[in-house]
Amino acid sequence: MHSEYSGSYDTSTNPPTFRKGADAVYPIVTNAIMAKHFGLTWAMCTDHGGPTHSKVNLEQAYPDLLLSRQLVPDVLQFWGMEFDAPALDHHTLMIPHHKDEAQQLYELESRFAKRDAFPADPGRDTEAKMIEFLKAAKDMRNKPLVIAHHASRSATGLGVYGQDTPREFRNGNNVAPDIYVGFEGAPGHQAGPLNGGARGGYGNYPTHGGFDQMTARVGGLWDALLGEGRRWWITATSDSHVHWTRGGSDFWPGEYSKTYVLARQDYADIMDGLRSGRIWVGTGDLITSLDLTASSRRRSAAMGETLTVSRSNRTDVDIEIRFRPLAGRNANGDHPEVRRVDLIVGQVTGPSADLDSDTNPTTEVVARFGPRDWRKQGHEYVIRHTLRNVETDLYARVRGTSTDEAEPLADELESPWHDLWFYSNPVFVQVR
């Protein structure tokens, strides 16, 4: 989420003069108050960079974050930024919570953010610089997280990528697999259509059901990365700048999109959950909990985990999906209902020789479930499905929707409240 510290710069002075409130307008504490109002228990302050912004973050924004933590203690507020990644579009740079967190962000932003140098330094905007940044992050005692933002916003077609490419994701993940762990499944700016704009600000090629094409296309880039065995996760953000009722394209933090992490209410455990893939994402509060489990012979694994089974026994793997529908009404005053849940399975075949590959032809929707296929158990609904005679490594993931669309359609100007989806991260099955 963005605050008034996503501002503008007068570069006629040296150093540049920073002006608050040009790009985003709300104080950090306002974002935290609204995050709490819409049910979030953690959030991250991620302002835009710019020339010498590292100093603005350190000297101006960070003290406001400390005050916000005192005023809104129910929301754990991480420190970070929407990093100007070398050679790429924006990325989340998430800093662990520790006494030197401000200095850690200052070091990374001042050394590596492509827009921080003044005068501008073209040498900052190269893939080699991005790799150098990831290596530096990996060597830090308190390891940050790096997650690509609105990865296909600059794409001009389906599979016609812009700033962010499959090759760059693979190269970065190879260098720092415990740092560079994923991309946004659902970008922010989802309220764009309410003011005549595009969801996510995707003005060239649209999102599908509010989700980036890299995630939404079955057998697409996300599946290609998972099919290599990469632990590559999806998240969802508000990317809040200016609320749509004030002419912006944003919802408040948590008003529409949420990232759920299986963790205690603890900074370190939340970050570990993000690093480990204990995550599912949803829009419009279509559901409020989701669990995906693979089990066999009294062993089980959940999202982000790996179930190991024996090759010799032609093993069946039982998949269990549990979700809890919204009991009341969402922020739009609606009571959305799940119309379908899809189980998606792909084979894990190892690293691809083609760094540009963005498909996994083995991935398919193996089962679709409607209301007649799930049974109520307490406040949850339960779906069970068996994968027979599993002989190859695979992963399974789940998505669900309030729509009748077999596959999420390219978004137009429909209300985002009428097009709701949730996605799990995968569980892996390893055959040995």
UniProtKB/TrEMBL annotation:
- Gene3D superfamilies in alphabetical order: Metal-dependent hydrolases
Q: Show the SUPFAM superfamilies listed in the entry.
A: PHP domain-like
| Xref: InterPro entries | Pol/histidinol_Pase-like (IPR016195)
Name of the protein this chain belongs to: Phosphoesterase
